Amino acid sequence: MTQDYSDVLVVGAGVVGCAIAREVSRYALRVCVLDQAGDVAEGTTKANSAIIHAGYDAAPGSAKARFNVLGNALFEDWCRELDVPFIRNTSLVAAFDDSDLAALHALKTRGEGNGVPGLQVLTQDEVRALEPNISRAVIGALFAPSGGICCPYGLTFRLAEHAAANGVVFHFERRVVDVTRAPDGLWQVTTADGGVFRTRAVVNAAGVYADELNNRVSTQKFSITARRGEYLMIDKQYAGTFRATIFQVPTPLGKGVLVAPTVDDTLIVGPTAEDIDDKSDTRTTADGLRKVVESATRVWEQLPMSGVIATFSGLRAHGDRDDFVVGEAPDAPLFFNAAAMESPGLTAAPAVAVWLAERIGEKLGAQRSSSMTPCPVFPKPFREMTDAERVAAITADPSYGRIVCRCENVTEAEIRAAVRSRIGARTLDGVKRRTRAGMGRCQGGFCTPRIITILCEELGLTPEQVTKFGGDSRILVTCGTRHAETDSDAACQTSSVERQEVSHD
Amino acid sequence: MTEIDVLIIGGGPAGLAAAIAAHEAGCRKVLLLEREPALGGILRQCIHAGFGMHVFKEDLTGPEYAHRFVQQFHALGLSAQCNTMVLSVTPDREVTTVSPTFGLQRFRAKAVVLAMGCRERTRGALRVPGWRPAGIYPAGLAQRFMNLDGWMPGRRVVILGSGDIGLIMARRMTLEGAQVLACVELMPFSSGLTRNVVQCLDDYDIPLLLSHTVIDIHGRERLEAVTIAQVDDQRRPLPGTEQRLACDTLLLSVGLIPENELSRAAGVGISAITCGPLVDESLQTSVPGIFACGNVLHVHDLVDHVTVESEEAGRQAARYAQEGQQARGSDIRVRDGAGVRGLVPQTVCAARVTDGVPLMFRPSAVFKDAAAVVRIDGEEVLRKRSRIMTPGEMVRLVVPKDTLERHAGTAELTVEVES
Predict the structure, then answer these.
(1) pTM for the whole thing?
(2) What is the ipTM of this complex?
(3) The domain over range B122-254 is classified in CATH as 3.40.1190.10
(4) What part of A 461-480 touches B (C-beta under 8 Å)?
């Protein structure tokens, strides 16, 4: 049983929750964040298109439209402050026929109404001049200069680190099962493991589960459907094929399949849009992946199937109000929603966070502090260094000269730093998302044993305790380990494994 | 900037043989770079036997085979730098490396031998749908866990693909007490060596399910089961043939990809079929002074073939370092005919051949009572009969020098399989 008190408790350590936590940490308030997973960014944040939308899609007057355009404008500053990549690579919405062209003009008008800068409808020649590798079937496009790309989980790690550096406490593997109002007026948040967290204000950033939380405390109920999107990642051998994010004319289910470069030089292709009942079902399907390929080849005719390095799916939190639910629940004072944040949720996250933090600060009567501990400085990735920087880094720390991940040129120093930070990696996936080790074309085929060893050294684990992403996602089974010498024979029934072991120790 | 005569990238069987041959050809400034802490390459983890039958007429394990070359390498006084990762190779053969000991280094080489080997194809490349739990590994990674680290990756195993590493791992995991349920192969034939099918599957009663594949993966955290299904002749799963196999481990042995990222960045032309550099009879790539051999050039079946090929690459690199680029006569284009995939080399200059030119390829399917036929401008010049040819086993034909000379000035050499 845990007893814990805070002024503000954020449920959900995705990009929205971490952005809010970081912004609220500017106030003189005790803040904590709870997440059911073992790390930040384990839900929608780790598996989405990574696009910073211009803002022409959302219905005028909606929260989506407002926070999209505001959030987009904040991205440069936020990413610079947190030292994470952000590229304003521009967006195109591709048209294939006359009805698409008409739709482009409607999108342009809508976008202008939303305050999106610089929208233009381009001819085929103009499109081809910008994107020489685009299919000739594309006869025109809407050009949005403010479209961008970022790394959603990279951004979230830094937001969490910055929040933690300013006193925010993170509790992982804490699944919230109940929120009630205690007799003394505080909120009482109960977790599946029996933890009780008492807090003045609750922020509901629980992603696809946010409806369940809201509906426990408010009569203003809403419902969230998990809308699954499947994706393909294409090897960076094809970097430069497209500069802009290329959308197709949107459908009622979403923005359709896009083709986009990532800030890491790979290309992302997807997503599908499929409403599913199980809010944790992140499977990929043969059908879904086929649809992605079929749709993407309309834009990228030569989509290189041999260049696919990974497939994955993510869930968008689609609300039945067809808009974000942002703000204090009308009948539940000090319960704040940041819910139903499907696309453009990532783009909107900074604006939602700033706006909500102001409301929360005001409601709790807290002072906004004039200064804040800056975001901790992380070692620059070796792959981004100049030669002079590399020489200096290796001189200071020789482990900067040891490449662990050969596909992404990630060094031992970076991996150890990712484990040692405040919100450090505890798993293979945690290392992967923080450093890109294991995220390249061999997908960990060579570096996995090295990373297991580093995690063991840093965290005092045995290799059998190392997981892919927490829980029971163990990489190895317990038998015939390096510890065979200290364990009794009874620990292992396969004697040949031990013999093997002895010969290597 | 350090000046080198022949710089070899990769310290596996290919790099070792090339270095030794370059030294024996008279080059004294030979340097081998290896990213791992020790020489030997992937042979270090291949603790099974079956290596060296051709080169040594002995049945050796991988580490034993590698050791012979490492010993010879050191006996000749050759130098290698381990823990050293090559970051880039330029077309004028400037090589940048990084290591914890020496930091950033730059070399300029008169000749470079690419011997980086290959990597395994991943689940992503196959687009196998389903969950993404722990317990799904390329077979070579599982081999490394077991044979170098002493770790056990799982207990109930399904193997997808019948490449040699998968077959070897079926036996290896069985010997360590795991239960291997099946080896599932999409094609109607194994892509591995026949002897491995017999010795690693048949001998342990592990079923080889041809024309089958994995169509779904179950288990949110650790793998719990896979669904397999039979496929039709278009490799599409056949409804009604699905079978769920409870397992905690899925090993993938679905193909190897030559690691040519450095080669591409150096401007080396790459074959769409072999995924390795396009080379001439001297194993020189499209960039003068850059040579390639071993699995980075094309994925081999036997290490013995790698050794023979790499010795030639080492000799030719030494010659280039000593004499520079030689004038070339006209090139004969080498073309895959029916039943043939991935002929290496892709061009031959008759005037520059010393003894004969070895041509290597993989049959595109299983052929019984077949013959590999070499034709130069349509005229048959060589025929090699075989009771059986399979994609898992390479065919090696040596076209004699005098044959090539008789056809000087011709345009095209083709090889085809007749059955």
Answers:
(1) 0.94
(2) 0.96
(3) no
(4) 463-464, 467-469, 471-480
